[in-house]
Automatic annotation (TrEMBL):
Gene Ontology biological process terms in this record: glycerol metabolic process; negative regulation of DNA-templated transcription
Keyword Transcription regulation: yes
GO molecular function list: DNA binding; DNA-binding transcription factor activity
Gene3D superfamilies associated with the record: 3.30.450.40, Winged helix-like DNA-binding domain superfamily/Winged helix DNA-binding domain
Residue ranges annotated for the IclR-ED domain, each copy included: 68-252
Reported function: May be an activator protein for the gylABX operon.
Any matching Pfam family: HTH_IclR
Protein name from the UniProt record: Glycerol operon regulatory protein
Lineage of source species: Bacteria, Bacillati, Actinomycetota, Actinomycetes, Kitasatosporales
Length: 255
C-alpha cells in the first residue's frame, strides 16, 4: 500500500497554520513555523494560491486562506437542501409574524438570499431571491459574521460601505455588535441598510452545530421594533423557534 504523499501533507499543514492564526502570515513565518525551506513553502503556497485555497495580499505579500477553501467549509450542505428544509418553517414564520421572511447563506463576502416569503398582506412586494445583501448592514449578514459562517477580517479590510447614518462601519463598534449577537443568539439591524426598515435574524445550524445559514424577519421599523428601537420580544421568540426547528431538521443535535 502506498504511503502518504509528503507534498499534500505539507500543504495541509500550511492550511491548518493559516486557519489557526489570527492574521496573515509572511512566507518566512510559514516556513519557520513548519520547519520548511523557503523555496519549498513558496512552491506549495503558489500552488494553493493557483487553486484559490490561499490568497496573497498584493501590498504586504502575506498569505491568508482563500475564498474557495472557505466556501468548502459549508459546501457539504447543498443550498437546495437548506432551502427545501426551511420552506415550511419560513412560511409559518411569515404567517405568525405578519412580516417578510428571508433565508440567507454566505457567498463571496455577501449574503445570498436563497428563499423569500412575502409579507402576508396585499401590498406590492419584490421577490429578493438571488439578491446579495451586505454582511455588516443586514441582520442576516451580522448573524453569519458573528457565528463564523463567513470571515470578518476580509470584509473590514475592504472598508464597509455606509448605507445610512446608522450603518456600523468601524471595526470596534461592529465587533461589539457581533459579540452581543453571540451572547443573545440572534442579531438585528435597525435602519442600517435602509431608513425606515429593520430586521432581526437567527442562525441556522447543520450537523456538528456549524452555522450554515440564517433566517430573518424584516419590515417597517415601527412594526419590528418597540418605541425605543428594540426588536419586539414576541418576534424574536417566533424567529428563534423557526431557526431551531430548521436546525433540528438539518441534524443539529444541540437544537
Amino acid at each position: 500500500m502506498a504511503g502518504p504523499v509528503q507534498s499534500i501533507e505539507r500543504a495541509a499543514a500550511i492550511l491548518r497554520l493559516l486557519a489557526g492564526g489570527p492574521r496573515r502570515m509572511g512566507l518566512g513565518e510559514v516556513a519557520s513555523s513548519l520547519g520548511l525551506a523557503k523555496g519549498t513553502a513558496h512552491g506549495i503556497l503558489r500552488t494553493l494560491q493557483h487553486v484559490d485555497f490561499v490568497e496573497q495580499d498584493p501590498a504586504t505579500g502575506k498569505y491568508q486562506l482563500g475564498a474557495a477553501l472557505l466556501h468548502l467549509g459549508t459546501s457539504y450542505l447543498d443550498v437546495n437542501e437548506l432551502r427545501s428544509r426551511s420552506i415550511n418553517w419560513a412560511d409559518a414564520l411569515a404567517a405568525r409574524s405578519g412580516e417578510a421572511v428571508r433565508l440567507g447563506t454566505p457567498l463571496e463576502g455577501r449574503v445570498l438570499v436563497i428563499h423569500h416569503v412575502f409579507r402576508p398582506d396585499d401590498t406590492l412586494q419584490t421577490l429578493d431571491v438571488g439578491a446579495l445583501l451586505p454582511l455588516h448592514a443586514s441582520s442576516l449578514g451580522k448573524v453569519l459574521l458573528a457565528f463564523g459562517a463567513t470571515p470578518l477580517d476580509a470584509m473590514l479590510e475592504a472598508a464597509p460601505d455606509s448605507y445610512t447614518r446608522h450603518t456600523l462601519v468601524h471595526p470596534e463598534e461592529l465587533n461589539r455588535a457581533l459579540a452581543e449577537i453571540r451572547e443573545l443568539g440572534w442579531g438585528a439591524e435597525v435602519q442600517e441598510m435602509s431608513m425606515g426598515e429593520a430586521g432581526v435574524a437567527a442562525p441556522i445550524r447543520g450537523q456538528g452545530g456549524l452555522v450554515v445559514g440564517a433566517i430573518g424577519v424584516s419590515g417597517a421599523v415601527e412594526r419590528i421594533c418597540d418605541a425605543k428601537g428594540r426588536p419586539q420580544p414576541a418576534l424574536i421568540t417566533v424567529l428563534r423557534e423557526a431557526a431551531r426547528a430548521i436546525s433540528r431538521d438539518l441534524g443539529a443535535a444541540r437544537w
